[in-house]
From TrEMBL:
Transmembrane segments: none
Name of protein: GNAT family N-acetyltransferase
Calcium among keywords: no
Domain of life: Bacteria
Amino acid sequence: MAGTHPLDRPVWSALTGAQAPLAIRQGAALRYDPQIGLFAAIPDISPASLADLGALVAAHGEVALVEPTAPPPVPGCAVVSEALCWQMVAQAPVAVPPVAFEVLDLAPADAPEMLALATLTKPGPFFARTPQISQFIGVKVNGVLVAMAGERMRPDGHSELSGVCTLPDHRGKGYAAALMRRIAARIQARSETPILHVYAHNTGAIALYQSLGFAFRRELVMTTLRPN
């Protein structure tokens, strides 16, 4: 779990920094509330920290780690999946050109539809209270939510674009790009740096993110654990 930059260990940085109030703690192990997020982290891979992580998983269920390397075996846990991710960063100002559709701030009343959209399209871990992390924005067609985007982890000085998804029948209309540009510009207006994480095999998404000004920073490993 080596790394000195906040982005080398984004979950740990977020849960010990800006998003510490969202953290559930078990000894040295931290995670987001299960109704908000799946991600967890520990300070190191000492036997004591690994035992705390195992106890956290036993108490609160499945977690995902996003680290430079996969962890050693965690007591009481089984590995559900292990995937290589790209971490991408937008350093230059993100342009926000006008679009021919309306971009809306989503409200608490939209939460069930947001969860349904994320469940169908699978943009990444998304739960009932995930929208409470940040102000999500979206596009509606005839009153139906067809696309959305928001923020998730906030490592020191950075914020992660997340929850970006579009109904299959409405793809190819520029919704995702427009929403991402607006979220990234919002982050930059706070003097923070926009980041995102994407599976390394998702070349289509990577090409979109590069076209929006995001550049590869480093590879990380996402390891999902469940109780034995």
